[in-house]
Design a protein that fits this description.
single chain, about 375 residues, alpha+beta, Alpha-Beta Plaits, 2 domains, two-stranded antiparallel ribbon, 14 helices, 12 strands, globular
Length: about 375
């Protein structure tokens, strides 16, 4: 009997552990890719000539980044397309950029406590995704018709490639590059089954406890990327050993994911100058604090309580650290006619106003019912 009880207890414990690991995402039960694409919604979208505004913003290295921003109508259409695409496809866990419940912290957390980390950056990532690459990727899904594919390509590309500035570009880029991700992972697993691989947009990270895998990664990357029309930035390729400060997507990952100390000290100085002298841009400082809170809450609280002693009653301190009610711009509203949540923009990209829905308020209905009752009474009197 004792043996039976012990067996039951062990089975229950194993079952609980499996459930916990599933919800933590360690098993791929909920991360299975949905393979059934549905682009029928494209029939509701009108045919139009894509209109973009091209401008340039400076990079850290002194060069310029080209931004192709769609006009308001096209941008609203692309937002609707992105919403529909997200309903029909889920990316695997190693794709960490531009998807729900994913961040640079999630990306970095998969590379902690490793003996070697290698970061590779793909040059001109979005512009490397051409119409032909998108067409070839989408044609692999047999449920999609050629008309739907061509219409989607027309709405999400500019000058024969993805536009850096369009809401749909990150999703399409992830979808097209997914095949190359799988090829690289498959080849790496032959050298080291425990190698970790993630990609955050154009930033690819490899990590392992086997330091000899460095040469295998170099050979695979140098052979696979050019074959499919991509180029790795040699200047941005970095290798971190265990005895050095290891950085993945801007965060330190030696023992745990943490905010870099040099950036923390700069932020602390910015906060001090703002609290004591009122110097600095409040929006920039609040943005840095918000980011720090999301990636390293321990350091955020340390900074918050560090200045609390001297600046607790300071209005600037309250603005920076106390919670304030924010007025969020709602992307949807309740349709009074149906009671359902509706998006602000229809499939043609035009804004939907509440007045567009023909309905009568409850107050108006009460007024009408009173009038009808009065009329009925008058009829009875007559």
């Amino acid at each position: 009997m004792k043996d039976l009880n012990l067996n039951l207890i062990t089975i229950i414990i194993i079952f609980i552990v499996i459930i916990i690991t599933i919800f933590k995402g360690k098993l791929s039960v909920f991360n299975k890719k949905k393979r059934n694409f549905n682009l029928k919604f494209l029939n509701k979208i009108p045919i139009l000539n894509p209109d973009y505004n091209t401008f340039y913003i400076p990079k850290r290295d002194g060069s310029e980044r080209q931004i192709d921003a769609p006009n308001t109508q096209l941008k609203n259409i692309q937002k609707n397309i992105l919403r529909e695409l997200n309903k029909t496809y889920l990316f695997p866990s190693f794709v960490s950029g531009f998807k729900k419940n994913a961040s640079i912290k999630n990306n970095a957390s998969k590379h902690t406590n490793k003996k070697i980390i290698i970061n590779i950056d793909i040059e001109d990532f979005f512009h490397s995704i051409t119409e032909n690459k998108i067409r070839k990727t989408l044609r692999a899904y047999k449920e999609l018709q050629n008309e739907e594919i061509e219409k989607l390509i027309n709405l999400v590309t500019y000058r024969g490639r993805l536009a850096q500035g369009a809401p749909t570009s990150p999703f399409i880029a992830n979808l097209v590059f997914l095949g190359i991700d799988n090829i690289i992972i498959k080849l790496l697993k032959k050298y080291d089954k425990k190698v970790s691989y993630t990609r955050y947009a154009d930033d690819i990270t490899f990590s392992s406890n086997n330091t000899k895998i460095k040469n295998a990664i170099r050979i695979i990357v140098d052979s696979i990327l050019p074959k499919y029309g991509y180029v790795a930035k040699k200047k941005k390729t970095t290798i971190y050993r265990a005895h050095t400060k290891q950085i993945v997507t801007g965060l330190v990952v030696n023992k745990r994911v943490s905010y870099p100390r040099n950036k923390y000290m700069k932020l602390r100085a910015m906060v001090f100058n703002f609290l004591s002298k009122g110097d600095g841009n409040i929006n920039i400082i609040k943005g840095h604090l918000s980011f720090l809170k999301s990636v390293d809450r321990k350091k955020y609280l340390k900074l918050k309580f560090y200045y609390r002693r001297n600046f607790k009653e300071n209005n600037n301190y309250k603005v920076l650290f106390n919670k304030q009610k924010k007025k969020h711009k709602k992307a949807s509203f309740t349709n009074p006619h149906t009671g359902k949540r509706e998006v602000k923009f229809d499939y043609s990209g035009k804004k939907i106003e509440k007045n567009d829905y023909k309905y009568e308020s409850a107050f108006e209905n009460i007024k009408k019912s009173k009038k009808n009752n009065d009329d009925d009474k008058n009829d009875l009197i007559i």
